[in-house]
């Protein structure tokens, strides 16, 4: 069976893998929005201490490490060996006990049913051939009552202007070609995929990042970046 992997995307991100922990480098925006995302996840999960968490598409471990520092038992999942080596090395230097695995979420779910208290899947769905396949796998590995978080980009004119034209081409906040507008996902599409699983929507919130102040806040406006909090049905 063909893997749910866009190898062109992996190759693209591997070119900048050494810069994952450069807070002024190509991943600086992720560093600047990290605390906002983390606090939302922690609040919706009623705390993270001692919980078993899976970070899907963990990359260099920016969110993964933040989750681990909260006292959670964290596994980071990615399919890029290059990126995972960066993540493992940085975690080692930070003296953090994180399990990093090179595996797709689909393969991981086949032997980890009902395993995790919390699953995070942040900025991943718009980079794979079949987003629904990832959502289905997340629904399998979460425990009953557990929370799954998906963050992605809405397919709107505003998101095209802000994320691609301004962020990638005018301000160089992201490497050019990071995003494909046609892969952006509307909330209606995401919720349709969610409805086909055992997951239920709990809350949807927008994420607003100001490149001038480098500040990130949560907002009711979901026409660009947004996070969906779901729970597995009891």
Automatic annotation (TrEMBL):
Coiled-coil region(s): none
EC number: 2.1.1.222, 2.1.1.64
Molecular-function annotations in GO: 2-polyprenyl-6-hydroxyphenol methylase activity; 3-demethylubiquinol 3-O-methyltransferase activity
CDD domains, A to Z: AdoMet_MTases
GO biological process: methylation
Annotated binding of S-adenosyl-L-methionine, by residue: 37, 57, 78, 122
Superkingdom of the organism of origin: Bacteria
Keywords, ordered alphabetically: Methyltransferase, S-adenosyl-L-methionine, Transferase, Ubiquinone biosynthesis
Keyword Transferase: yes
Gene3D superfamilies documented for this protein: Vaccinia Virus protein VP39
Catalysed conversion reaction: a 3-(all-trans-polyprenyl)benzene-1,2-diol + S-adenosyl-L-methionine = a 2-methoxy-6-(all-trans-polyprenyl)phenol + S-adenosyl-L-homocysteine + H(+); a 3-demethylubiquinol + S-adenosyl-L-methionine = a ubiquinol + S-adenosyl-L-homocysteine + H(+)
Methyltransferase type domain mapped to chain residues: 54-150
Pathway: Cofactor biosynthesis; ubiquinone biosynthesis
Family assignment from sequence similarity: Belongs to the methyltransferase superfamily. UbiG/COQ3 family.
Protein purpose: O-methyltransferase that catalyzes the 2 O-methylation steps in the ubiquinone biosynthetic pathway.
Listed name of the protein: Ubiquinone biosynthesis O-methyltransferase
Organism expressing this protein natively: Candidatus Blochmannia ocreatus
Lineage: Bacteria, Pseudomonadati, Pseudomonadota, Gammaproteobacteria, Enterobacterales
């Amino acid at each position: 069976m063909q893997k749910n992997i866009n190898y062109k995307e992996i190759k693209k991100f591997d070119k900048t893998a050494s810069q994952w922990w450069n807070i002024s480098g190509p991943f600086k925006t992720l560093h600047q929005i990290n605390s906002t995302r983390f606090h939302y996840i922690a609040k919706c999960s009623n705390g993270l201490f001692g919980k078993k968490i899976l970070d899907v598409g963990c990359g260099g471990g920016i969110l993964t490490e933040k989750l681990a520092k909260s006292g959670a038992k964290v596994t980071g999942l990615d399919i890029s060996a290059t990126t995972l080596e960066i993540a493992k090395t940085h975690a080692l230097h930070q003296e953090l006990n994180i399990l990093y695995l090179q595996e797709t979420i689909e393969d991981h779910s086949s032997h980890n049913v009902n395993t995790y208290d919390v699953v995070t899947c942040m900025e991943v769905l718009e980079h794979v051939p079949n987003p629904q396949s990832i959502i289905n796998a997340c629904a399998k590995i979460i425990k009953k009552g557990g929370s799954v978080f998906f963050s992605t980009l809405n397919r709107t004119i505003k998101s095209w202007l802000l994320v691609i034209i301004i962020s990638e081409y005018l301000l160089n906040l992201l490497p050019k070609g990071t995003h494909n507008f046609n892969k952006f996902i509307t909330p209606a599409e995401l919720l349709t995929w969610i409805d086909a699983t055992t997951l239920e929507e709990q809350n949807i919130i927008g994420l607003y990042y100001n490149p001038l102040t480098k500040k990130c806040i949560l907002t009711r406006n979901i026409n660009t970046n947004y996070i969906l909090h779901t729970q597995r049905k009891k």
